[in-house]
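Aim 2, interim progress: modelling of the 2-phosphoglycolic acid-bound target.
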Amino acid sequence: MRRPLVIANWKMYTSFSDAVVLSTAIRDGVENISGLEIILCPPAVWLTEIVHIIHKNINHLSLGAQNIHYMNEGEFTGEISAPMIRDIAKYVIIGHSERRKNFDEDLPIISRKVAAAIDASLSPIICVGEKKQSQGSASEVVKELKEEISDIKKEDYKNLIIAYEPVWAIGSEEPATPEYAARIITALREVVHFETPILYGGSVDAANVYKFVSRPEIDGVLVGRSGLKAKEFIKICRIVAEYKKIV
Ligand code: PGA
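Predicted structure of the complex, ligand included:
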């Protein structure tokens, strides 16, 4: 049985006090929600503070980083390595489309980062998604995922989380339809371990999340904007827990 997941990517948002208030509100709001794992991915600079806030007897709430370098240490000014964050975070987002677009991250770099995360015992949250909707999207995305995980062993596939995020649906007005997302996720499932959670991401909110998580193919969601509003995010977690309840 794959575990249901809700992930919040805070991107480059929140001041120090915003981050403290938001993580505290989320911690208190999700405390009594069971049956899913919730992962907050704040800016790296707030990780060490938030780890103390969320680790108050709630083991279904964890932390992830938004990025790592593929080297463990060295002359890489401004970068953060996997060994640096492994004692604070369990997860790291790798290959988000904004990093590809704004920082020229290509598939070989992404696959090195995935391997660096695995070596440091972090679980990578690997983002995949086509830039434009087309008939061939499923095969394009499958090819992309295979390259992204080409530097790790098959036995490590169960430690991955895959986020299917069609680039055209991120930060937009309209998400992909649940049928469309489920079709691509079914194709991605062939590539990974049966225990690997595969999530949908792209314009998910509290009003539309049920459409995605009511599909058995979709194990949860990764949210951007909706993760920055405590009430909305807690509602999303509640809906996911409800739909994924083991009956
Ligand atoms: P969004 O962002 O939910 O604001 O569309 C999703 C993402 O970037 O992962």
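The longest strand covers residues 123-128. Residues 16-30 form the longest helix (15 residues).
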